[in-house]
Design goal:
heterodimer; A: about 375 residues; Rossmann fold; formyl-coa transferase, domain 3; six-stranded parallel β-sheet; three-stranded antiparallel β-sheet; B: about 375 residues; alpha/beta; 2 domains; 15 strands; elongated
């Protein structure tokens, strides 16, 4: 198949998650992505393991984020290495980095210096908080950005205090925004033939994902979000029945729905509390509790078999074991295997984007540090 | 000049997922025309959150659909369909998020549109893909969170499922759709080809969880275990979490436990010298931290930890955030204006191109406000 970014070369001066997750997306879309890593240690993520899982010398986490890439080891503090890198930069289409503001200037690889080497480069950077203001020097770390962005007051219930999203959501969204910016820049360059600078930050991405509720806040006299006090409530701004409910053998989720219809189907009289649409906001807690009292009496399958035929938006709440048993998980072929080269494979997910009806598989495992130096040196004539 | 200037996007999608993608394209310079059902329009216009109504319509509609035009049509009328076909002939991108089968019934499926405009980027977003069992299920955010295991990652171990309190899967799928569309446009500008771009919420939800799902797949199928208190990531060791202080909260990311013990004056922590204990004994460590951190204020702890380069932060609500100079420096809020003069404040695009933030003053459209102009410009039939 014809991958849209075939022929595009990306040099990735990034570590951890935000920048490298963008590199992974670009690679799956067809770009050639070369990680520029310091010799011996490489991307710090190589040693950042979750549950102490390693594949050879590198963490499984590193493998997850850096599949389908090459690695070029170079020491940015060594003038000879830097000279070679500049030759490589002269031939690249895209450079990404996630150093703190000022670091690339010291090395001499800031945007204006790089433009001198390559006047058609796409120069893309990720920071934590932008490059101005009192937060610019703070470490760009996901949990900390979640914490200052207000995001932690949207999940869980009102009694919980701040509840962070249990994934590195600002890193991942910021990586997604970086991909958007880079490809838009490639389109712009195709017409202008000139370099383009792209900048994203974790905090701006954290605010962007809150754009709906922030817009509500900004135009509602500055009323802070009010989470429900009830366990299972799923959105500070949405009314009953929106939430998850315990059943006799698990949990089910119900999204927006007509309470008259739902209460009739499950046999739960809500008429005293539910008088009109407004009451689903005003009496959200009572309604969630009342529905919960009925739903806990029977099993998931019972309720879903009653609700689904009436087109009520509902689903079982599944864990990973149950979720991956679903027909749809298999039929969508979400899992792919990476070849480690020694006959072993590791399972992971694939790109979520399909082009011309094709799924974007890529079974190339993450590279060892400097695995591609020799090839790249000879290919780009770096001596 | 903005990156997507001169591109025309015809957007049939509703709610959040598809429209969030076209908002991004609009902010990058594309002209986005919403195709809206006559009489009611995008259902999101009346999908209220917290009963907040702005200028007669929901606040979320205004957030998602600023910087777009509205073309109100009745696709059951032949004349209206003809007009849409004429518009599609000029379009660079078409977007829809109908359930599988609907566009086939309406006649605007990919083969038909491609035959009409071979260079078009046809982008579709579904809940569960377009083939196989379950393809007709509603692509609703909370339900997608629920069926992909996402609700077992946030909150504490005893909390049951805890959904992420935003329509995060919608936004991810929208972000991926925008990426696919942009990639298609890049191929179009370099190779002159059209493209079919497909994204589903279930694939996007798994992509979001690629780290934890990959861990699960290679760890003998062990389920994520949240800590009983102060959980922030089921897969990370102590101190990762948010802790109550004497006057608020403190977020702590990574950091050596004995070093933290020394800095915080908490002797109990100094004995956890083995690196692996940060994960293996995280419940114990978090419990000690939780008690100790309540003895002083957030500012007190920050004044000790920040100079020592420990990754920590205050925990702010929106009011506190927006009063902070760090927020003001971003210039993240913009005011936009609707055709009738109604003005509202909202966030801007999070991407900066060539050093400039992408602002746009245009508010969301009234239903059908651009019919006359669109017909005059694009439609040749009587």
């Amino acid at each position: 198949m014809n991958r849209p970014l075939e022929g595009i070369l990306v040099l990735e001066f990034c570590q951890f998650l935000a920048g490298p997750s963008a590199g992974l997306k670009l690679a799956d879309l067809g770009a050639r992505v070369i990680k520029i890593e310091r010799p011996v240690k490489g991307d710090a993520c190589r040693q950042l393991a979750i549950k102490n899982l390693f594949i050879g010398e590198d963490s499984l986490l590193f493998h997850t984020i850096n599949r389908n890439k090459e690695s070029y080891a170079a020491d940015l503090k060594n003038p000879e290495d830097l000279a070679l890198l500049k030759k490589l930069i002269a031939k690249t289409d895209v450079l990404t980095h996630n150093f703190r503001p000022g670091v690339m200037d010291k090395i001499g690889l800031d945007y204006s210096s790089v433009q001198q080497i390559n006047p058609k480069i796409i120069y893309a950077s990720v920071t934590g908080y932008g490059d101005t203001g009192p937060w610019a020097a703070k470490p760009g770390q996901d949990l900390l950005v979640q914490s200052v962005s207000g995001l932690t007051y949207l999940s869980g219930n009102a009694e919980d205090g701040p509840v962070p999203f249990g994934l590195s959501v600002t890193d991942i969204m910021c990586g997604n925004h970086l991909v958007q910016g880079i490809i838009a820049a490639l389109i712009k360059r195709a017409k202008s033939r000139k370099s383009v600078q792209v900048e994203v930050s974790l905090l701006e991405s954290a605010l962007d994902i809150q754009f709906e509720v922030l817009t509500t806040y900004l135009n509602d006299g500055g009323q802070l979000p009010k989470r429900s006090k009830v366990n299972g409530s799923a959105h500070a701004y949405l009314s009953a029945p929106y939430g998850t409910y315990q059943t006799a053998d698990g949990y089910i989720a119900m999204a927006m729905g007509d309470l008259d219809k739902i209460s009739a189907i499950i046999g739960c009289d809500v008429s005293e509390i539910y008088t009109d649409t407004d009451s689903t906001f005003e009496h959200r807690d009572e309604l969630l509790i009342l529905l919960g009292k009925t739903l806990i009496t029977k099993a998931n399958a019972h309720w879903l078999s009653l609700l689904e035929p009436h087109d009520i938006w509902c689903a079982g709440v599944l864990n990973y074991q149950e979720a991956m048993q679903l027909d749809v998980f298999r039929s969508q072929e979400i899992r792919q295997e990476l070849k480690l080269g020694d006959g072993e494979t590791i399972g992971t997910t694939r790109s979520p984007i399909r082009i011309d009806g094709y799924k974007l598989y890529a079974d190339k495992a993450a590279p060892k540090i400097g695995a591609d130096n020799e090839k790249i040196n000879s290919e780009f004539d770096l001596t | 000049m903005k990156a997507l200037e001169d591109y025309l996007v015809v957007d049939f999608s509703q709610f959040l997922s598809g429209p969030s993608a076209s908002l991004r394209l609009a902010d990058m310079g594309a002209r986005v025309i919403k195709i809206e059902r006559s009489g009611t329009g995008d259902i999101c216009r009346s999908l209220y959150t917290s009963n907040v109504i702005m200028n007669g319509e929901s606040s979320v509609f205004h957030a998602i659909n600023r910087n777009k035009e509205s073309f109100e049509v009745d696709l059951k009328q032949e004349v209206d369909c003809q007009m849409v076909w004429e518009l599609l002939a000029k379009a660079d991108v078409m977007i829809h998020n109908f359930r599988p089968g609907v566009m086939e019934r309406l006649g605007f499926d990919y083969p038909a549109v491609k035959a009409h405009n071979p260079g078009i980027i046809y982008a579709e977003l579904s809940g569960y893909g377009t083939e196989g069992k379950g393809k007709g299920k509603p692509g609703q955010d909370l339900l997608l969170q629920s069926v992909t295991g996402l609700t077992w990652l946030s909150g504490n171990a005893g909390s049951g499922p805890v959904a992420m309190g935003l329509s995060i899967v919608d936004m991810l799928a929208g972000a991926h759709l925008a990426q696919g569309i942009l990639a298609g446009l890049f191929r179009k500008v370099t190779q002159g080809l059209g493209a079919l771009i497909q994204v589903s919420m279930i694939e996007s939800a798994y992509d979001f969880q690629f780290e934890t799902v990959t861990t699960f797949m290679n760890d003998g199928g062990v389920l994520p275990e949240r800590t009983t208190k102060n959980n922030a990531n089921a897969y990370l060791g102590a101190p990762y979490g948010i802790y109550k202080t004497a006057n608020g909260f403190l977020a702590l990311a990574m950091g050596s436990i004995p070093v933290l013990g020394r800095l915080l004056g908490c002797d109990e922590l100094r004995s956890f010298e083995v690196l692996a204990e940060a994960f293996d004994k995280r419940e114990e460590i978090k419990a000690i931290l939780a008690v100790h951190l309540q003895t002083q204020s957030t500012q007190y702890w920050l004044s000790i930890l920040e100079p020592a380069d420990i990754w920590c932060a205050d925990v702010l609500n929106w009011k506190e955030l927006m009063e902070h100079e760090g927020f003001k420096a971003l210039n993240m809020i913009q005011e936009v204006e609707m055709i009738d003069g109604y003005r509202y404040r909202t966030t801007r695009c999070p991407i900066r191109i060539d050093g400039e933030s992408l602002f746009s003053e245009r508010g969301s459209p009234k239903l059908g406000q651009d019919n006359e102009q669109i017909i005059r410009q694009f439609i040749k039939i009587n």
